[in-house]
Design goal:
The chain is built from 20 helices and no strands. The chain is mainly alpha-helical. Among the domains are: 123 residues, Serine Threonine Protein Phosphatase 5, Tetratricopeptide repeat, CATH 1.25.40; 85 residues, Serine Threonine Protein Phosphatase 5, Tetratricopeptide repeat, CATH 1.25.40. The radius of gyration is 22 Å and the shape is globular.
Length: 331
Amino acid sequence: MENLFESYVLILSSKSATEEMREETLVKLEESAKNGDIACEAYLAYYFEAVGADENPYLAKIEKKNLDSTAMQNGDLAFVLGLFYEYGVVRDTNIPEMKKWFEKAFELGTKISYLELGYYHLEIAEHGEESEFEKELEKSKEYFNKAGEKGLSDAYLALAEIYMEEDELEDAKKMYKKAADMENSNGFIGLAIIASEENRKSEIPALLEKALSMKNSIAAYHLSGYYYELNDFEKSLKYLQISADMGFEEAQFQLGFVYYEGEELKQDYKKALLYFEKAAESDVPEAQFYLGSMYYEGKGVKKDVEQAKYWLEEAAANGNEDAEEYLQNIE
């Protein structure tokens, strides 16, 4: 039987999910919380804290409840406690406690806990001590494999990405195929990437169209890039627009840039500003830079130095060097 809680968490953590999908998922989580699902209530408290929401009514609600005792019999809630301790949200960071609760969650049938543990050990492998790399990488693979064997298709995607990093294309292909066979849209995107690597270009559109039919915004973005390389700018812009309208922030930035430059489309600063704003709100530093510069120069909008500095500072904080230089020149 499908675990709806796991489905909700995976949608909210997926970059390929559309804005509509995220909004619908939040509504479903809130409905479940109102109906007494304590795991959904706790996850909403975590989620709104993690995204920096102005208000979080769920914090006060969960503070009145004995979460630890309930989580001993509730795998979904045990998973949320693991998130609390991993990211230092709601509770202080505590890695032993994180592992304890993720293991308990898996024991109780919430398999996304092993996906989270896989990512945790992968992070250590990539950014920890070099001497620990192999051991931590094997741990991450072990957790991903266990989650995959329990029917979690995202675990196979994680394994595929590891194999891609290791230039093991055949192993990566097998993992993407497993994910695709489980109707994971990102599995089809992965197979399209493999097809490109193996110079099987003719197979790419069908694979990406399949993913797009499953409401995957990144698939539309890849289709835009595919047709751009073929110099079919009309189709490229069509899919870029689709991806941007589905809420993919990189597509929103690129479409804003197209309108800003005025080469493939007629220059339109107001439309550029619109798409830069959307992408900037999703923390795309390049979009924040262009948005700030447009406010300062009054392109497509009335000049507003305060707004300009705000967005340029956001871009600089996110590592955009052009924004840092721009700020030095206007201060």
